[in-house]
Amino acid sequence: MKGEASFVDQHTIEVNNKKITADNFVIATGKKPHPLNIPGHEYLLTSTNLFELEDTPKNVAIIGSGYVGMEFATLLSAAGVKVTVIVRSGQPLEGFYSQHVHQLVDEMKNSLGINFIFNTNVTAVTEAQTGYEVQSANGNLGTFDKVINASGRVPEINALKLDNAGVEYSNRGIKVDKYLTTSANNIYAMGDIVDKTAPALTSTAQFEADYLSALLTNKTTEPLRHPVIGTVTFTFPQLAQAGISIDKAKEDSNYSIKDIDITQGDFLYAGTDDHARLSLVFDKQNHLVGAAEISQTAVDDINALIPVMAIDVDPEVWKEKMLMAFPGLAYKIRTLI
Length: 337
What we know:
Radius of gyration: 23 Å
Oligomer: single chain
Number of helices: 7
Strand order of the largest sheet: 17-18-21-20-19
Number of strands: 21
Low-confidence stretches: none
Mean pLDDT: 92
Helix content: 10-25%
Distance between the termini: 51 Å
Shape: flat
Structural class: alpha+beta
Order of helices and strands: EEEEEEHEHEEEEEEEEEHEEHEEEHHH
């Protein structure tokens, strides 16, 4: 059915004025763009309607610097658009290794010509004769053809009327237990709508969907355990990481960190950009437990390292049983584990 669903009670929802009953429900409504409640918010584009533009703007301001903001900045600059990114804090992409993020910002400035304005909150957007003026507490930030709201995403909760079903939630999402069960024992939630510590990614949502399918068809009785999760931002260059955060590992004496310049020596291969870096985290037993990379091939390189972390394979067995294609990084991890 296509329509907006809301709960009537714990066993009933209503869609298009039609009531539907069920033994169980799964809520997977995801997130929507975070609304900016500022004067002129009606002029803002979002990730939903940006791609509906018929003409390429010449000058764009992007409010926000998470995945969406930084990837749009890369995409638009590659299309010849002059891009300004307005960052609320002092660092974009706060979930990624800070050293790599600072390097990425420098690369985006120098290679793509993207302008960054840090520690700034947008207070208003006004229509002008030549476009839209963006205002902050410190004054006018400029006039732009288009202004994009990439300030984040929020749970798609409001229309669900969760209180009618006794489902607990917060502004971070729906609360669930280790079986993805909500406070109503016949209602489950999965994906971005869930208040969780695991990254809100397509891959984690699909993993949770597979788990719930098994749980609800009695193919498992085990609690959900998220695997080693890789995440990437498709900027230029890419940032990718998995496992223990490098920044957190630096604050914990149980871990050691190896920083590698993968543009030099044995790691150099065609396609690697001039400033590629790989950082690895090892525990006290010298097992690889975290990795982060900045490069033009970061997503593929980190994906090659995830099995090493997840399977906890004996390094000697890895070297004996597998020879990856040379000269990719997947081949050269033989010397790193």
